[in-house]
Q: What sequence folds into this?
């Protein structure tokens, strides 16, 4: 399309300038009619947040997204420019993207008065019409709205009452576009007051100038719940001026969480190494987050970000990648013992309540991993305790093998062949995997190994086997022998203490 270069050419083309909220509404209606994806890359909000967001746009509302950390609030805000026209015209050189047919700033008004239809225009791309500011306590009215520029006044020999000395802030520079303020409660109350006119009357006033500059602007906000931030509040008059408050949430299903993590995590490693992540590992990683969001030791007001699952999966893969490189192998397949490599991703992203701090963050994180393994194990295999009560010997051969003082040592350091060979010592283990996970001989050996260790760890989490983990090595033993050994050690210690007395 040949774009007009002057306002006269634009007028002859029949182009109509519409307010930005009308523009977003019109484009949203088109997408709805064509059944297009409105917000690509946003998963889990199709029946909750996105319908509410569409309603707000159709209603010409300014919007606030309210939710805990890691709930895609900023990503949603940054997706809003997709509802703008691809290009819009503005007067060339204008700081506030003035409408060629109806300019509002003095410089453009003077230019139109002087040159008429010969005023040059340029075209603004949709991504350039989005502005964003992270609210911090040091943000000023001058940053957001503008101030008098003494250098401009001196250079152009203008007195301070002249409109030409105004230096526009970020809000006016987003005129005819979308402006987002992240973490709104962090903005000082007196600065929030400065947004009143923009929200209601859609104009700005700077330093008491007797001029009003009307803006065509959509303002959107994000915020954590006030009871969590404790850093500030959204003042009530400002909340009253925001058309729609939309609550975001964490993934409500395991499958939504898996899709988000798969989309965001860096899994395809370089260096000629193939990465294969069995489905049950993806489920375990997501289940860790779900367990944390229900844990009595984790501060639920703080939330558990989806970034935890993303970085946990990346650390899981990296631990396998490190092993693969050291053993001169080419395929990365995670192991259950690799899950502990995700501890740095978990401990750094959960905030504990007092009881959790007493337990210790590492112990809480390990407990979350254990609960996740136990929950996902029961999605694939029968409940060991229920099977035992019914008299079904599903795991009897496996458990009995350990009763003869036998144990299994697996590590996240040894090569795939040695790993599988060690696990195959346990009688009946491979048969259980083949029966319930529908594996066949075409499945790669490392995946067989991971599934077999999954069974052992699942039995441990269900108190059927004992497990020690130290220095990257997991040892599975008979539960009863371990308990008796512990009792003997305690008795010996008591006897020594008695003798000393």
A:
């Amino acid at each position: 399309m040949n774009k007009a270069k002057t306002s006269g050419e634009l007028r002859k083309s029949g182009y109509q300038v519409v307010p930005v909220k009308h523009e977003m509404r019109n484009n949203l209606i088109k997408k709805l009619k064509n059944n297009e994806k409105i917000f690509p890359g946003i998963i889990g909000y199709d029946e909750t947040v996105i319908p509410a967001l569409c309603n707000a746009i159709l209603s010409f509302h300014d919007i606030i997204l309210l939710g805990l950390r890691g709930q895609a609030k900023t990503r949603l805000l940054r997706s809003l420019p997709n509802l703008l026209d691809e290009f819009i015209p503005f007067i060339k050189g204008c700081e506030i993207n003035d409408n060629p047919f109806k300019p509002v700033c003095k410089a453009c008004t003077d230019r139109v008065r002087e040159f008429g239809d010969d005023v040059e225009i340029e075209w603004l791309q949709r991504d350039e019409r989005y502005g964003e500011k992270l609210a911090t306590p040091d943000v000023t009215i001058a940053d957001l709205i503008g101030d008098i520029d003494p250098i401009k006044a001196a250079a152009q020999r203008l007195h301070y009452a002249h409109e030409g000395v105004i230096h526009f802030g970020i809000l006016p520079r987003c005129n005819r576009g979308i402006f987002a303020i992240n973490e709104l409660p962090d903005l000082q109350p007196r600065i929030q007051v400065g947004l009143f006119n923009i929200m209601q009357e859609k104009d700005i006033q700077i330093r008491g100038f007797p001029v009003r500059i009307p803006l065509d602007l959509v303002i959107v906000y994000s915020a954590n719940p006030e009871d969590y931030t404790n850093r500030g509040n959204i003042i009530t008059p400002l909340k009253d001026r925001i058309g729609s408050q939309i609550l975001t949430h964490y993934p409500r299903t395991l499958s939504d969480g898996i899709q988000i993590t798969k989309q965001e995590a860096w899994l395809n490693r370089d260096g000629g190494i193939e990465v294969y992540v069995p489905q049950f590992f993806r489920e375990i990683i997501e289940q860790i987050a779900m367990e944390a969001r229900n844990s009595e030791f984790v501060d639920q007001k703080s939330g558990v970000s989806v970034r935890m699952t993303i970085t946990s999966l990346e650390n899981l893969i990296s631990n396998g990648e490190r092993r693969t490189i050291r053993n001169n192998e080419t395929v990365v397949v995670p192991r259950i013992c690799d899950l502990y490599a995700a501890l740095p991703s978990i401990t750094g992203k959960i905030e504990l309540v007092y009881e959790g701090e007493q337990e210790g963050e590492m112990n809480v994180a390990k407990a979350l991993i254990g609960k996740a393994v136990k929950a996902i194990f029961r999605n694939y295999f029968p409940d060991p305790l229920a099977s035992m009560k019914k008299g079904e010997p599903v795991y009897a051969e496996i458990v009995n093998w350990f009763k003869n003082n036998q144990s299994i040592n697996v590590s996240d350091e040894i090569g795939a062949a040695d790993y599988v060979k060690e696990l195959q010592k346990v009688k009946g283990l491979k048969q259980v995997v083949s029966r319930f996970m529908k594996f066949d001989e075409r499945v790669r050996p490392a995946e067989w190994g991971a599934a077999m260790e999954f069974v052992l760890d699942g039995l441990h989490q269900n108190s059927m086997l004992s497990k020690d983990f130290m220095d990257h090595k997991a040892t599975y033993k008979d539960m009863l022998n371990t308990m008796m050994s512990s009792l003997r050690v305690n008795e010996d210690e008591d006897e020594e203490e008695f003798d000393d007395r």
User: Anything to note?
Assistant: The chain has a mean pLDDT of 88. The chain has three domains: 7-247, 250-380, 382-501. The domain at 7-247 is CATH 3.40.50.300 (Rossmann fold).
